[in-house]
What does this fold into?
Amino acid sequence: MSESVKAESLNGSIEFLGKGVIIKTRGTTSTVALDRVQSVEFKKAGMMAGYLKVNVAGADDVKARNRTQARQQDTHTVQFSKSSKNAEFEAVADAINRALLS
It folds into this structure.
């Protein structure tokens, strides 16, 4: 599989390269092989920020007071605030899900 899809926001970026995912947030870069990806969580932006989270096997959950704070601290989550970015992030989520199913 050679599909490459990328989405960017002020918080960071996420790129699916067919065999893995590159997530850049707040100066950190995580590269996750597709076989370590368990699932993807996608929430569209609207009144609240949207996000795309890659659930990784063996990754520790972030300890925080609430889910919003946890997403902000999670190196496997990219948040976006503009609804105009929904399609861009949904395309990345769909590409990862298609690869997980194949």
